[in-house]
Amino acid sequence: MPLLQTNYISKSYSDHQVLSDINIHLDQGELVSILGISGIGKTTLFNIIAGLLSPESGQVILKDQPITNTTGQISYMLQKDLLLPYRTIMGNVILPALMQDISKKEAEAKAAPLFKLFGLQHTEKLYPQALSGGMRQRAALLRTYMFNKEVALLDEPFSALDEITKHQVHSWYLNLMKKINLSTLLITHDVEEAILLSDRIYLLTGTPATITQEISIDAGLKKQPDFELSTAFLNYKRKILSLL
Amino acid sequence: MKKRTSININFLPVLVIVILLIIWQLVSYFQIVPTFMLPSPINVVKAFIADFPLLMSNAGVTLLEAFWGLLLGVIGGVLIAVIMDLFEPLYKAIYPLLVISQTVPAVAIAPLLILWFGYGMLPKIVLITITTFFPVAVEMLTGFRATDRDLLHLMKTMGATKWKLYYYVKFPNSLNHFFSSLKISVSYAIVSAVISEWVGGFSGLGVYMTRVMKAYAYDKMFAVIFLISAMSLLLIWLVTLIQHKVMPWEAVKK
After folding, report:
1. Does the reported pTM lie above 0.95?
2. In CATH, what class is A4-74+150-243?
3. What is the ipTM of this complex?
């Protein structure tokens, strides 16, 4: 039984159909990417899964329970870190807990030991403006983790980072996922990022957009050093680009 | 080098004021304009000192009216903004009326309010409330509406209720708008208080002004004008001070 799945999700804006019969699933501990060009409807799909938008038809199912149109079930992170400039990093990170009516003290006690795991030591009392782009993104990820949900939806979370920082955050994120047993659904338009991070990749193409391909990335190949410089990596890239 | 330039720039307005005061003193001294019409700065200062206790007691009344009027105006403005933000049809219905209401000058409705509410403090407070609530309502609404939609979405995925959205996101996001409107409103409050006191009343700086005007005591007239101006400046400065205290993150460099 998959952790999260969507059944035949379709969505239109006025007369224009955006998504048609989207069926995807995410298993426990997996990182699955949805890859498609900009404007194809990836974010619409995410908003439906997060419960922010109603699908025209279809269902979102989390652990056998329908959660269509329900917010607060899945953690969610966007390209913009959306850290509140008027709250300290600690104040930002505990927001999901505060929304669930957990006391500030309790939330801070829960968050405090996680700062080290997320590489954010000594930033608790700083305002987001004082942090670098990479650190802000890690703080946003810690906030996402504080949702205390098993599934994280990440909408192009690393696309605003420079190449070197992005590279560091990628391997850091994969490590972290294993440590905290998080399952991730990732939206991206970056083919290389999708190959590097994912266990599986869904290709979203056409108008209205449908899932046209599902590509599994060999876990053994991914573990090899310099995977991103290997022929296997290039073969994946060539295949995906030809299909998009 | 850089520091020196900034000192010079800060010093410039003071220099201009000093030069203007000297010119004014000379104009008065050489009787270019008759002294009874334009008293010299020194005479104005003398009048200020002589009437100091009276000025202060009247200023107290004006400030009290301004305080209550402003308080009600701010509360009303914030409430209206929240209501308009919550209910789109109400926004469409009320907003144009709000804008039109601002074309009615305060001076024009002051006599009407005196007729309705008498010569006491009430008509003054009502007028101040009317004039101060508008900037607050409009600016707060702008702040609410300028809140990043993605941020609101994110908070909703966390399970935020409507009121939590206001408490954690919309209000803090609108603080800058709030304080800039408050700076406008405090000066409106003082001006409106004085205007309504002109029209009728027993005490306050406006009443003092009409009295000294009828007595042709122009030196006292200038003294009270400067006092009103100084009070407004002081209040604006106070608002700025509170703003810095309330919004410490603004000082963090981006």
Report:
1. no
2. alpha beta
3. 0.80
